[in-house]
Each structure stands twice: as C-alpha cells, then as structure tokens.
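Supplementary notes for students who missed Thursday's class. We covered one full example, reproduced here. Read the sequence, then the structure, then the short commentary at the end.
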Amino acid sequence: MKNLILFISLVVFSFKVFAQKQDVDPNTFQQHLNDGNAQILDVRTSDEYQAGHIKNAMLANWIDKDEFTERVKYLDKNKPVLVYCASGGRSSQAANWLAGNGFTKVENLKGGFNEWKSEKKPFDAPTTVIQLTIDQYYASLKTNNPVLVDFGAEWCPPCRKMQPVLDALQNEMKDKFKIVKVDGGINTAVMQQLDVSTLPTFIVYKNGKEVWRKQGIVEKNELKKQLSN
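Structure (token representation):
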C-alpha cells in the first residue's frame, strides 16, 4: 500500500513538473515575448550572453548552480518565464527545474538562440565598449556630497529588483547624494581592482573614501541611513 501511494505521488509530481513547462518554437516564443508580461531568462554563460542575446533577457548561468539558484529567486513565480540557451538543452533542464520549484508557467525555446537567429528573429548584438579605468572611477567620486556606487547590470535579476528602490531613494533625497552606476557586465577590470565579485554591490563614499559596502538586495532605509550618517 505504501509503495502504491509513493508511486502515485511520484506520478502526480512528475505531471505537475512537466505540465507546467512547454517547449515552443521561435514564433510562439516571440509572440509571448511581445505580450510584455513575460520574464526572459538566458541560462548560458556570461561570455555567450555578451556575444549576443535576446533583448531584455536576464542572465542566470545554468552550469553554475549557485549563481542560477541565487538569481532566479528574484523572479516572479506568478509571471511567465521564457527560457533559452544556445541550442535548447540547458534551457530545457533549467525550465524543468523552474517548473518543479513553483514557477506557474515556463516555456523553453526549442533550438535555443541558434534557432532564434536562423529564423532571423531580433537580438542585441555585441558592441565595442571601452572599459572604465580606475582613474576615471575615482574621478567620478569627486563631490562634496556622499556618493553611492551601484555595481549592477541590466541582465542581473536582483539588480532590476533594486532599481525601483534606487529611484525612490533619489526622489526622497534629491540633491543630497550622488549616484554612480557601474555596469558590471562591462567594467570587469575596475570590479577586480575594487574586489567586487557579486552583482549588485553598493558602496558609499564620503570625501572620496569608502565608508560602507554591501552585496545583494538592500532596503531603502538602510541606504538612506548610510548616506545620511
């Protein structure tokens, strides 16, 4: 009897996982992408992403399980998630994981980014960008007001979650501090020199000297306190 119950439980669980995840072709993927309510998740490596990606896609490397689980926890489980990789293999596994961990609607792009490009679908191509130098970084800190440096990236889920917090902080404090944004997807040399390894990372400077830093999600009141002290 116990074995029967266990078997039924496994069947129900398996049905729940795979019923929530669908493999879709590029046309369907694009249609749901254009609906405007979906979250787009690229599960390739950062190098693959930088070589070209679907516009507005967030990045969570499936191969790096710690990075993947850390970043996807900032996604909304009640909104559709459109997942892709290079050819569909990694994203299929990632989509199954998402479906099995409470995400209500998950779609995997069949054929991946390679198929997307072969179908001549739009994507953001890499551009040549000159990295920020450490001298330019420190020059941006020269002001009489406290400076909040935001190391983030457009493709980083927790960074996107922090943007409304930063907007609200700027509205409240107006001209009482300066915010400097550093793209962590581009300015890797500066990040290495400043020992910044996680996005987002926030650093507060006063009179050009670092007085506080914190990684990940930060409450508005904590940022306000650090800038006001």
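Commentary. The chain has ten helices and nine strands. Strands lie at 21-24, 39-42, 58-59, 81-84, 106-109, 147-152, 178-183, 201-206, 209-215. If anything here is unclear, bring it to office hours.
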